[in-house]
Amino acid sequence: MTLTTILLAIGTPEILIIALVILLLFGGRKIPELMRGLGKGVSQFKKGMKDVEDEIKEDDNKKE
To answer: Is 33 in contact with 42 (CB distance < 8 Å)?
Structure first.
C-alpha cells in the first residue's frame, strides 16, 4: 500500500479520532508546543531539500 493510497483512505472520522487520541495523550496545553516543533521541523526539512537542489544545480553548471 502506497502513502498516497493511505492518505486518500483517511477521512473526517479518522482525522477526528487521531485528533482525540493526540488530545488525550498530550493534553490541551502541550498541543501548541508540539505544533510549533512540527512547523520548525518541516521548515528545516524544506530548507535542506532546497540546499540539496541548489548543490545539484551548481554541480550541473560546473560540468557544462
So the answer is: no
